[in-house]
Each structure stands twice: as C-alpha cells, then as structure tokens.
Write a structure and sequence with these properties.
By secondary structure, the chain is of the alpha+beta class. An eight-stranded mixed beta sheet has the order 1-5-6-11-10-9-7-8. A five-stranded mixed beta sheet has the order 13-12-14-15-16, with helices on both faces. A three-stranded antiparallel beta sheet has the order 2-4-3. It binds histidyl-adenosine monophosphate. Histidyl-adenosine monophosphate binds next to strand 6, strand 10, strand 11 and helix 11.
Length: 422
Amino acid sequence: MAKIKAIRGMNDILPDATPVWQYLENTVQQLLSGYGYSEVRMPIVEQTDLFKRSIGEVTDIVEKEMYTFEDRNGESLTLRPEGTASCVRAAEEHGLLFNQTQRFWYQGPMFRYEKPQKGRYRQFHQIGVETFGMASADVDAELILLSARLWQRLGIRDAVTLQLNSLGSNEARAEYRQALVDYLTLHKDQLDEDSLRRLDSNPLRILDSKDPQTQTVLESAPLLSDYLDQESAEHFAELRRILDDAGVKYELNPRLVRGLDYYCKTVFEWVTDKLGAQGTVCAGGRYDGLVKQLGGRPTPAVGFAMGVERLVLLLETLEAIPADLRQPFDIYLAAEHKGIQHRLMLLAEQLRDQLPGLRVRVHCAGLKNIASKARQTGAPLVLLMKTDEAGELVGTLWHNDQPQFDLGEAQLVSAIESVWTR
Ligand code: HAM
C-alpha cells in the first residue's frame, strides 16, 4: 500500500531542526518580555468573514490563498492566514481595547495556499507583535528598535536591511490611488496581465509588480510620498527622527505598499538578500482603522510579524547558530553489564535532583560495545556504571577522552560538577 505523506508545502520540523527553532523562539520571548509585551494565544480557525473584512476581499491572500472549508454546521471557516485579524478579534471580544493600551505577541502556524518554494510554504510560522491604543510614532519606533535589537542578539544584524514607507491616511491614499490609476491607464498597453487586472481592483499592488515592462512604466508614476496628508507626514518625520537618533539605518521605499489592505501611515519590511526570492523576514505597519472596521471603537494599532522559517534559514545560512545547540543532553548514562539497569534509572533521578539543569539521557537498549556507543552519541560527558565485588555501584566518568575511574555513588555529583559546563 502506498505510504501517506505530508501535504505539499507543510513541513515536519525534525529533532535536528527544533533546537534552532527553540533558540530563536526563546530569544524572541526573552526580548519581548524585556519590552513589557504579553503573550496571547488565539485559535487557528476563525470565521472566514474575519479575514475577508480585515485583509481585504481583493488581496492575493483572500482571493487565492485561504484554506476555507465548511464545518459540519455549514459555517464557513478558514485556517488563519495571518495573526493580526485574530488578535484584534480576540482583544475586542474580551474587552481589552477600550480605553487601554496593550502590547501583545503571539506565535504559531499560519496557512496560505501559495506555490511552495524555498522560504515559502503553505503552513508556515509567525511570531507576531501587535500594539493597541497608541497613536504616536514612538510605538512604531519601539517596534523597529525591538526588531533591530533582535537581529543584533541573533547575530544577523548585518544581513538585514530596513525598508520604510508611509501610506498616509485613507483619504490621502484614495487621492493617490486615483492619480496612479489615471497615470497607469495612459500606459495600459504596457502593463502585465496581473497588473491590468489590479488596475480596477487594487491598483496600489501594481507598485509591487516584478514585471520588467511594468516596472519601467512605474519609474515615472506619481509617488505616494507626494500625496501624504500633513498628519501622516509629521508622524513619519517623528518616526524617522527617533530611528536616526537611535542610529537605525533604513531605506525609504516609496513603492512599499504591503499585501494586506488594513495598513495606513507607517509600513516597514526587514529584508535580506541571502535567501533568494523570499527575502522578507519580518514585516508590518500601522493599522489604525482595523478595530473599527471589525466593529470596535476607533483604536490606533501597529504591529509586525516575522517568518520563523525564513529566520531559521537565515541563521543556518549565516552559520549564526551557537555551538552545541543541537546536543540534546549533557551526560549519557549507561550500564557496563546486565542486571543493574533498574538502579541506573534511580541514579539518573538522583542526579537530576542534585544537579538541576543537568540533562541526562539514560541508555535503555542492548549493551554490546556500550563504551564506544556511548561516546558516539557526542555527549560532552559519558558515565558508565558497573558494580564492584561488594555489589556497590561504581562509575567511570569520561570528559574529553579523560576518564575518572572508580567513582562511588557519593562522589559522582562533585565529579560531574567539576567537568560539566552549564
Ligand atoms: P505578511 O507580510 O503577510 O504580514 O507576513 C509576515 C511575514 O510572514 C513575512 O514577512 C514572511 O517572513 C512570513 N511569511 C508570509 N507568508 C509566508 C509563507 N507562505 N511562507 C513562509 N513565510 C511566510 C502579516 O502577516 C501581517 N499580519 C503582519 C502584521 C502584524 N502587520 C501588523 N501586524
């Protein structure tokens, strides 16, 4: 019978890879708690309308990429393609937004039916950050400073650059949209098929087109920055001032519009040229209109999400992974002969009691060639136990090919402590 395989674009993350994921997740969590952010956990499935109403009906995500299905009640549900909409829904539903400021983060799988390739999957993982109730540019800056600090901690700061733009208010963007449509309509015959289609539905997305001929047309297109309303322009100037003062470099990219409809004012992306086509490792922006759009009271908000797979790939590509990360235990404990396995299990428990943090793996299989098998595990420490003539347990502790022989049970803890690097 044919074996059942995983679904295309949905990956198993195997023991060889999970330490890097954990390292990344732990580093992010530590960093976020240093900025006073709290974790929220949302369901993976939501009502389809939540995403339609927030991400936008005529976006790639909603038009082509959602995993939507009917449940047994005939209700249309969708596997979340992103976390912002769910986070807003959850915060609003539980009364966490009115008259309050909030700083949240979340992590977990997201689902988009995209064409899988390196760095682009159908089930992928994000760590997202969302803030609510704060309208000023200092929060936008905080998110960028926080992410810059993360790259620094991960040792990938030099591999990523920050692209920055302001989309302005909804009114300013509508005015710009008209100017862009007028201009592009004059050059309709030079646009690629996708862009032509977007001319009516979502013209700003044409700015993202990778088609060379469309790009040539875009070179002389009107610029969003020329249409910014005063409030957005001041907000953007304040953000840039804080970034400049903090020494965070950025590139102004007037064509950065993002693929989700809820943004206004600040948008940004951290990109790398080390991963090929899928180079955006973290992206976000301000979405002051979304809470109201989803039925809440007007609440300013700004956030971002990073792609965990892409960051893991980047850490691996740059070899920015701490040594020994993949070694899942500190000490390998094995019996040299039969008949003492039950005592070994208790000894392992005692060692865990007395040396908290010591990661002990006990050998629970055949004992043939046990000494070399134990060394082949790559464990920094190997402890081989046997009984002496009096029936007492005695051990040999190996560290860097240096043995300490005949250690009685009472001596084991101090012997291990003398060579264990935590
Ligand atoms: P997004 O740009 O759609 O924004 O996704 C954020 C990040 O998720 C991307 O920059 C990328 O690193 C990763 N990503 C997206 N799609 C895939 C995929 N198919 N495979 C692998 N990684 C992927 C959002 O989702 C917004 N919710 C971000 C946000 C939060 N804006 C405000 N708050």
